[in-house]
Amino acid sequence: MDTVGADAPVTPILGLDAATTARVLATAGRAPSLHNAQPWRFRTGADHVELRADPARRLPVADPTDRELRIGCGAALYSLRLALTGAGIRPLVTRLPDPSDPELLAVVRRGATMPPTPEQRRLLEAVPRRHTNRRPFSDVPVPAPTRTALTRAAYEEGAWLQLVTDPDDLSVLGRLAREAHARQSADPAFVAEMAAWTGRHGGHDDGVPASAGGPLPAPNHPWVTRDFGGPAHPRPAPAAFESAPLIAVLTSHLDGPRDDLRAGEALARVLLTATAEGLSASPVSQLVEVPDVRERVRRSLARDRPPQVVLRLGHGVPVPATPRRPAADLIDPG
User: Phi and psi at residue 107, in whole multiples of 5°?
Assistant: First the structure.
């Protein structure tokens, strides 16, 4: 199984040995999350693994309803499922099993022994290569077969990925992104929360390091990007970003905790598919974090399905990985 390693032994789960258990949990911990907060915990038993939200890693200003927290945990759930499949286990998942325990998001048990499919192996191999890329992409178009693979990845996880190609729709989304960015940037509480999680310089196993930021786009560029460098790490001068990125909107059937979780599972599969296909991705989170802007995004695309994530996709150069907590630190002792 080609996955991410771990730094410390952990208690074996689901019939796996300790080393494989650590690799499985470390792979789950490579999932994407808002500001790389990694808002998940795993409570392990001999015959099950609980995925739990970590309230200490909430971002209450950017994400007051914990919607993005649950999406991040859903991404970790998909990565856990994929890693278990790579270890020869068919995972059996119960989502939101206990209404009286909202932090308990899923329970995973062992199903039949079965080998991973070639596609699952391909996605598993993409896990350590998947990094958010905030730098310019090339203007090489994303080919039609890759677009199909991305939409299929979302569909098979119970979500829908709309690739926005209409120039008028793109213009509306770009304008809304700039508006949402300006409003968040003018909120001192939002700026302070973001500064607490970004612009870091070593010694951290979470958050966004300053090195993960990208240059400023040109002033007239339709897609704004956030400054993750912090005051001590000013951004490079404006650079030539791609003129027409592929913008994708991931939507769910409804709004609610279960839909957030499933959207996260779909997001993880879409991003790993993109990585396996040689693409880079970065979120345009402003569009779904400001409530009235998110509603206008939904209306502008003429769909009843709520937008959960907006992605910018394209061909980019390799970027460094963001830090991750070791597998042993992800375990909730209960």
Answer: -125, 130
Sign of the alpha-carbon dihedral angle for 95, 97, 100, 105: negative
Sequence-distant (6+) residues with CB within 8 A of 119 are none
| Sequence-ordered list of residues with C-beta below 8 angstroms from that of 270, at least 6 positions apart, any chain | 150, 153, 154, 161, 248, 250, 311
Question: Closest by alpha carbon to 217, among 247, 185, 199, 239?
Answer: 239
With b for 16 or more beta-carbon neighbours within 10 A and e for fewer, the 198-222 pattern comes to bbbeeeeebbbbbebbbbbbeeebb
CA dihedral (33, 39, 45, 47) positive or negative: negative
Q: Tell me the C-alpha to C-alpha distance, in Å, between residue 73 and each of 141, 267, 268.
A: 31, 11, 10
CA distance 64 to 305: 21
| Cβ atoms within 10 Å, residue 162 | 18
Measuring CA to CA, which residue among 91, 100, 119 is closest to residue 28? Answer: 91
pLDDT tens per residue across span 182-219: 999 999 999 999 999 988 877 889 999 887 777 776 66
For residue 5, give the amino acid letter: G
Burial level of 158, CB count in 10 A (0-12/13-18/19+)? Answer: middle
| pTM of model > 0.85 | yes
Q: Which residue has the tokens 């829908």?
A: 160
What is the tens place of the pLDDT at every residue in 124-171?
A: 999 999 999 988 898 899 999 999 999 999 999 999 999 999 999 999
159 within 8 A of 250, measured Cβ to Cβ: yes
For helices 167-185 and 188-197, give the axis angle rounded to 10 degrees. Answer: 90
CA distance 199 to 212: 8
CA distance 30 to 12: 19
